[in-house]
Amino acid sequence: MTADAKAAYDLARRLADPDRKKAANRAYYLANKEKVLAKNRQWALDNADLLVARRAEQRDRWLQYGRTYQPRHPEVGRLGTARYRARRQGNLTKSDWQDLLSEFDGRCAYCNVKSDSLQIEHMLPISRGGTHNKANVVPACGTCNRRKGALTPLEYLARTSPSL
Ligand SMILES: [Zn+2]
After folding, report:
1. pLDDT tens digits, residue range 103-118?
2. Cα 34 to averaged position of ligand 1 atoms, centre (Å)
3. How far does residue 142's CA lie from ligand 1's centre (Å)?
4. CB 156 within 8 A of CB 110
5. Span from the CA of 143 to the centroid of ligand 1 (angstroms)
6. Which residues contact 44 (CB under 8 A, 6 or more apart)?
7. Choosing a second label site near 81 at 20 to 30 A (CA), which of 2, 49, 75, 156?
8. Which domains does the chain have, with CATH numbers?
């Protein structure tokens, strides 16, 4: 059994209940990580211009959104954070996080880059009902974490590699 396949198997077992489907999705991704990542990379190479354009477009949209929304809702920043914390279920411990980092060999779960500054990534976003515990957390680099935002892993994969 390869290391990836073993990791996938262990994760699938650990996540089997109550989120069997999520576990299966993650297991598939881990078992086929090389293939998925290779496809992502090739797609990105083939579509470099499109990606640059899409990123610029998205940045403009967000800037525009921020400029028009924030001034009209000065309360949202603070309230939003408080609500986010209140809604956040689960208790990821420091040792859980250390376990995850070693499980993923100090690499981003999405792009496989090795990094000293990996961030806590909620696979199912908190805003979509995800919990703040080990079963729902993976390490991700800042770039992937920001890019994934409030998408589920499958939505994210579908977006980053439409040919998958
Ligand atoms: Zn990454």
Report:
1. 999 999 999 999 999 9
2. 14
3. 7
4. yes
5. 6
6. 51, 160
7. 156
8. 32-160 (3.30.40)
